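Worked example 2:
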Amino acid sequence: MTSVVSAPEMAARPGLGWLNWIEKRTWVLGLLLTVATLALYYPVHHHPFVNYDDSIYVTENPHVQSGLDWDTVKWAFTTYDAGNWHPLTWLSHTLDCQLFELNPAGHHDVNLLLHVLNVLLLFWVLQQATGFAGRSFMVAALFALHPINVQTVAWVAERKNLLSMLFFLLALGAYRWYARKPRVGSYAVVALLFALGLMAKPQVITLPCVLLLWDYWPLRRMSLPALERSSGDVPPMIPARSFYSLVEEKVPLLAIAGVNALITMQAQRTGGARNYFPRFIRLGNAIICYARYVGKAVWPSRLALFYPHPGYSLKTLHVLAALVCLLAITALVVIQWRRRYLAVGWLWFLGTLVPMIGLIQVGVQAMADRYAYLPFIGLFIMICWGVADWSEQRHISPAWLATVSIAVLVALTVTARVQLGHWTDNVTLWSHTVQVTGPNFIAENSLGIALARAGRPEEGITHVRAALAIKPDDAASNLNLAEYDRRHGNLLACIERCKKVPAMTQLALEKAAAYSKMALAYHVLGDTAHERECLQEVEKIQRGQ
């Protein structure tokens, strides 16, 4: 959404001296991106940990809190905790705990620093590959300030998202270095960065496919007959190769991706993260969510920490409407095939979302704001290059277009700051989530916990009961109600509820918690035999039996 063009074009156009000045001083644009990102997100320094996943990753994880030593490294590389294999993420949290202990400010500051680095890397990678500083700046600015990325930056548990993106962008930048002069050493650097990204979070598993898109545009390494030079291209500096040779070139990277996929599936099975819906439900939800993501890219409203899966309440009419929307955009991309950036941006968006779109259902969410962190770059490329080309064709004043671009960025910043305000504390965060998502057992239960910890237990337990009314077999909500009963002397009710929990969950932590609560209740009742049995079950679970 900027009219800044390539240096040769600017030299030929009068009245663009100030743009030429910026073009030659990209550090100014980088500084603007840094200042804008820090200005938006500096309040996270005062935010607490979130009572959802932050406990698993930091506040209640003894391995992470033990500090960086050989035992922690071995654990990080061998554990499937949290239903994932991401050793670099564990080590990053461990280093934070060693530096900041359990002061959330330091953990949040590192998240913000990583987001700033990702913003600058995205700007650099795009500018180097395309030659367009202004358009690259606008893509990076949208990435920096779009409200949907608040979740990734403001949530300590999403360190994995930030780290994986860092290595993804480094690999994308290194790939251009390799493409200009292919060598084993430079290819090895790309492969290493890809592997490091996967060890932070497997969402970057689609990198080999993104590199094929990058070959098509902007590197234009892909030799395809009957394709003319498309708008937005710079003159090719890299020898073209056939499509098949470029696919063959990616085989080692595809092998790395395949190994990681197997490890990830094993981690999800072991961690009990898989949830099963019929194929038509998963496909229908995926179609709707693709359309919802596009909508939130253009109009980022009603953002929430957790969107419940619709399950069998999915409506066929909604699926068909979403499908028509997606097909219409695809048709536009096909019609405008000479504008290669449209195909690359659209396929980037569709393809990088595949691991998180729910075709294989992991967790109980329909979609998540954090899943858009990587895919939305494709949409931003489509928008920024498309608007810039449109404005040039119609001779729109660069000053006018710059004004509109700034207005859009200001509006996004204001919206993002409002969204960031919902993360100020857990009660505010989950109250907002309940408000914008409707029936939501995760949000109700988490709000109940937050209220209890804020000294409002009676108000909190009504939300826990609301969660159970939505999903009676939710293990976490049952455990919270059991704990409320135990603290209020309803020991038999606590025991009966805890007995049902192990059958509700595959998570070892929840099973162990149920037996621990029963042991405490039996202790108060003086039933030492049953207390001993429960403690033995806890030990078996902790030993992995």
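Strands lie at 222-223, 241-242, 307-308, 365-367. The longest strand covers residues 365-367.
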